[in-house]
Amino acid sequence: MRKEYTKVKRIESSIIEIENVADVTYNAVVSVHALGMDFVGQVVKIDDETISIEVFGNTQDFSLDDIVISFEEKPLAIPLNEKILGRTFDGLARPIDNGGEIYSEKNYSVEGEPLNPVAREYPRDFIQTGISAIDTLTTLIRGQKLPIFSGYGLSHNQIAAQIVRQAKLKTDEDFAFVFAAMGIKKDEAMFFEDAFNKAGVRDKVVMYQNLADSPIMERLIAPKCALTAAEYLAYEKGYHVLVIITDMTSYSEALREVSSIRQEVPSRKGYPGYLYSDLATLYERAGMIRDVDGSVTLIPILTMPNDDITHPVPDLTGYITEGQIVIDRSLYNKGIYPPINVLPSLSRLMKDGIGEGYTRADHEDLMNQIYESYSHVGEVRNIAQIVGEDDLSDIDKKYLEFGDEFEKRFLSQQPTENRELEESLDLGWEILKILPRTELHRVSPENLDKFIGN
Hints:
By secondary structure, the chain is of the alpha/beta class. It has three domains: 4-71, Beta Barrel (Elongation Factor Tu (Ef-tu), domain 3); 77-352, Rossmann fold (3-Layer(aba) Sandwich); 362-452, no CATH class. It is built from twelve helices and 21 strands. The protein has helices at residues 132-137, 156-166, 186-199, 218-236, 248-261, 275-283, 312-320, 329-333, 363-387, 394-411, 421-432, 445-452; strands at 4-5, 8-12, 15-18, 28-34, 37-47, 50-55, 67-75, 77-79, 88-90, 107-109, 126-128, 140-141, 148-150, 168-169, 175-184, 205-211, 240-246, 287-288, 295-303, 323-326, 346-347. Strands 9, 13, 15, 16, 17, 18, 19, 20 and 21 form a nine-stranded mixed β-sheet that branches. Strands 1-7-4-5-6-3-2 form a seven-stranded antiparallel β-sheet, with no helix packed on it. Keywords: ATP synthesis, Hydrogen ion transport, Ion transport, Transport. InterPro entries: ATP-synt_VA_C (IPR055190), ATPase_a/bsu_AS (IPR020003), ATPase_F1/V1/A1_a/bsu_nucl-bd (IPR000194), P-loop_NTPase (IPR027417), V-ATPase_su_B/beta (IPR022879).
């Protein structure tokens, strides 16, 4: 029989402190009975004989005299089987879709299983998203972690839903999808539900939702539950799993709030000093394991406060992940969808996942040339604002034409438009023909002759 404790030292927000407790481990699950209901908590701090417990629920009406606490000798674990596909859960992996409970012989720790880094396999397989700016210039690779950096009010949700609808491997193998939302509004959750249903992929999607009015502590567990489900589907059932998590800024702000309640020393902008390592424990769960058929590919979405890419959350995320896709407000205001700014965007793994045998032999040449030419467009536009368009050289006017056509025809596409990679590559070469051949410095003579001509 488990020992029960009733003498609580302090309650502050969702943190309960209790004294004179022995043989309790960090991250252990805690059962909290209060207000006639049962709540789940977790040990988050052990200081001599004082134990701090984080309760995943609303504790504002708790009384010091109305709490019964008992500890379990294990971390938080959730039941998993293949029937989770098509289901919707809250941030603690409890069903909220009236589909019944999930039963399994084994419960899986939300902290994940230890993974030997030597067992990891280097990602190389191209994932086609049907979005030209991603497939051609910021290529997504199976097993990669590639975040979307966005801003409040931009179209990152539509882009994420489009990727789920259209993502496919070169081998035409299907994906299973795991979607986790933290701190989103109900209408955003309904948008994703509706998008998945209309695309006919709802039966392949597992959803974990922590809404804006849900307990903030659930926000810290939701992505762990989602990644645990992804690891189960990938490494035990052999699925290729694409995980989308939104919004990592909401997660980080919840972490900051909890850190403040714990009275920890703050770091940049009030975030805890361990924000980097905490984010890394989530992001590094993506990948591939040697001799295992499945894989976990991760696309975390984060909204940058004031569109500031140097903010701690995007800044640290960029160090941990393998690139980023940057959503640009100026392109969004021009009516371009998807408003992906390709210049600050990059995919660090694409160099080993494109070219002969992976995508197409000319892919790298095209990518390098578009980056060079489009970066020069920005310089010419700045000069045009000073001296006027009429006083530009003929070549500079060609760059302006190239920039406009690139944004209108290559970057811009319909939210339902699914472009094949070959179509995107051919379109890129067609737009490069606007520039004189002498301006194409990053293309081999063979590809110049083949795609540009004399």
